[in-house]
Amino acid sequence: MRDLPSGLSRKRGGGPVKKIRLSIDGRDITVPERTTVLEAAAALDIAIPTLCHRDGIEPFTSCMVCVVLETRTGKLIPACTAPTAEGMRIETDTPAVRKARRDSLDFLLSEHVGECEAPCTRACPTGMNIPRMIREIRSGRFDLAVKTVKRHIALPAVLGRICPAPCEKACRRREHDQPVSICLLKRLSADQDLQAESPFRPEGDPPGGKTVAVVGAGPAGLAAAYFLSLLGHLCTIFDKNSRAGGTLRTAVPKDILPESVLDADIGGIIGHGVTFMPGRELGRNLDLEGLCKSVDAVLLTPGTVSPSLFDGSDLEMSLKGIKITRPGYTTSRPGVFAAGGVVAESKMAVRAVGQGREAALSIHRFLEGHNPDDNQDVFHSLFGRLQPEEIKEYLQEAEADGRVEPAGEREGGFTREEAVREAGRCFGCDCRKLTDCRLRRFAAEYGTDQKRYRAGERRPIEKIQQHADVVYEPGKCIKCGLCVRITKNSAETLGLTFVGRGFDVRVEAPFGEPLDRALVKAAAECVEACPTAALSWKDRKEKTP
């Protein structure tokens, strides 16, 4: 039986307190009287999700995400405020508990007006963090921009010239005038890096001894090899041609994609833990059976080939090519994966690069002993199209000027000065708490449905900029009350409070005062505590990748 840490075993006055014995998830523990179920679970290292709770702040019980089952009574109780009782038997992860938490999250999300990732990022086949790259260019930090690019893109200078820019078709700035020139911005950051004395290469994991053979040195195979090497795997690319590049070298006009640029991007992959074996062709002088016996995993990316090439290979074929299971790029043969044109023909190199990265992550899971198809679900909060009157909210943080056109025409690309000006047009649609939003994390964990309780029109988007350092977006607020309690504890002269009743309740400064008068001392703690980025830093304070 485990006891609660001694620091919590006495009354505030210093005298002894009564001890309570209970069980949580079948594990016994003894705690002081008036200990909450949440505190007792934490002492057992049992995680219970919370949105409205913060240590040191009086509980409020608003989100109801922390409910647990008390098996003796059959009742669901909020762990953050429910006191422990003698003989209590708590279960924290039953079907009934998960359903109740999902119901609470669905309700909170029904009123949540915010998007997790920007539309441009969702449209990008590589999933690159485009808004972050643009912010770094806007501040003149091209060295940081290329780091952001290379986290998801293996051939950035190449794609900066030939990508059809699906991200720009999704850009919200397009709803106002013209989309941000994302592709040209990416191109300049990549070109600046290629011109550097030591082009940036992300720091990879230490070698783990696992080996992977990639068949095909086109965009999918090159991207896969790049990320596999970063993940610590020894990777060899086999290709029938004497030079890597595939259709990038044969199907793209040289005036659009100069060989020097292609060679430089490929050179950033080959030689850094990746070996290139030219003149090796499946069915001629390269045998799939032999590869499978000599390495730990095989990735097939030879482009569009005749299905007869894989006769007798135990690979299941579809009408388009090798049949795979998404999201893992697994074939019917264990340890063999496939991506790119050998699965289904595509003329978008950026899609092939994205598939190469995804396949590499799947192979990595396989090599680590996990199910390659177990790709963790990611939740995306969405609110739909902007209304015309909402554009002004985004223009508060973006330049009003129209699209910047390169002085040397688009073929010549941006100068640094032009890129900074164009980057200033970005609306910054992504969430300011993208990676540590608890609402998003729990929404993915519990499989929520944002539309389940949504009725009527959504709330309008607001970006209240009344504070020098903090922006407040009421549509993202879930009324957890943390900021209200924090400002009270911090003895703010005004602080924040709940205004209105019922569904119209919102958090504001009292008496219609501006935000800067409400958050004089407690701004930092409120921003840190906010579970949804309703309160967030204007400058985002992003960590260097």
Describe the structure.
The structure is a single chain. This protein has 545 residues and is of the alpha/beta class. It folds into four domains: 92 residues, Ubiquitin-like (UB roll) (Roll), CATH 3.10.20.740; 122 residues, no CATH class; 157 residues, FAD/NAD(P)-binding domain (3-Layer(bba) Sandwich), CATH 3.50.50.60; 81 residues, Alpha-Beta Plaits (2-Layer Sandwich). It contains 20 helices and 15 strands. Helix 4 packs across helix 16 and helix 18 packs antiparallel against helix 20. The chain is globular and about 80 Å long. It starts with a strand and ends in an 8-residue tail after the last strand.
Q: What is the 3D form?
A: globular
Give the terminus-to-terminus CA distance.
Answer: 43 Å
Instruction: Determine the structural class based on helices, strands and strand pairing.
Output: alpha/beta
Biggest sheet: strands, sense, closure?
6 strands, mixed
Taking all Cα atoms into account, the compactness measure Rg is 27 Å
> Strand order, biggest sheet?
1-3-2-6-4-5
Looking at the overall shape, the CATH architecture of the largest domain is: 3-Layer(bba) Sandwich
Number of helices: 20
How much of the sequence lies in strands comes to: 5-15%
CATH fold label of the largest domain: FAD/NAD(P)-binding domain
What is the helix content?
A: 25-40%
